[in-house]
Specification:
By secondary structure, the protein is an all-alpha fold. The chain has one domain. The protein has 5 helices and no strands. Helix 1 packs parallel to helix 3, helix 2 packs antiparallel against helix 3 and helix 4 packs antiparallel against helix 5. The radius of gyration is 16 Å and the shape is globular. It is found in: Cell membrane. Belongs to the fluoride channel Fluc/FEX (TC 1.A.43) family. One of its GO terms (molecular function) is fluoride channel activity. This is Fluoride-specific ion channel FluC. Fluoride-specific ion channel. Important for reducing fluoride concentration in the cell, thus reducing its toxicity.
Length: about 110
């Protein structure tokens, strides 16, 4: 067998990304868990826009590093007011889109600089 199946490549990257997210969320206690996940998702989107990575790093590592399921879980938490949930939702969605746009713009700037 000369090639590793794409599912193994992506799955390996996802496992490492999820482990990195776990390490960060278990060590960061300065801010609350929903804010930590929001920042992780924004950082992941920015890196995705900047690097346009291969399946291992993109879909795999950054896909495992970011977390839509934790984001959805925090939004559905009964102790979160509708106002806080709305702010978390909008901040995460717009932050991730803005992060990707910023990363993409920085990558283009890097490749077109004299």
């Amino acid at each position: 067998m000369d090639r590793v199946p794409l599912s193994v490549v992506v799955g390996s990257g996802a496992a490492l990304g999820a482990a990195a997210r776990f390490l960060i969320t278990s060590q960061v206690s300065l801010i609350d868990a929903p804010s930590t996940i929001m920042l992780i998702n924004i950082v992941g989107a920015t890196l995705m826009g900047y690097f346009r990575p291969s399946p291992f790093w993109g879909t795999g590592f950054l896909g495992g590093f970011t977390s839509f399921s934790a984001f959805a879980l925090y939004l559905a938490a009964p102790q979160l007011s509708w106002f806080s949930a709305t702010i978390l939702f909008l901040s995460t969605v717009f932050g991730c889109v803005a992060g990707w746009i910023l990363g993409n713009a920085l990558a283009h700037r890097k490749t077109t600089a004299p």
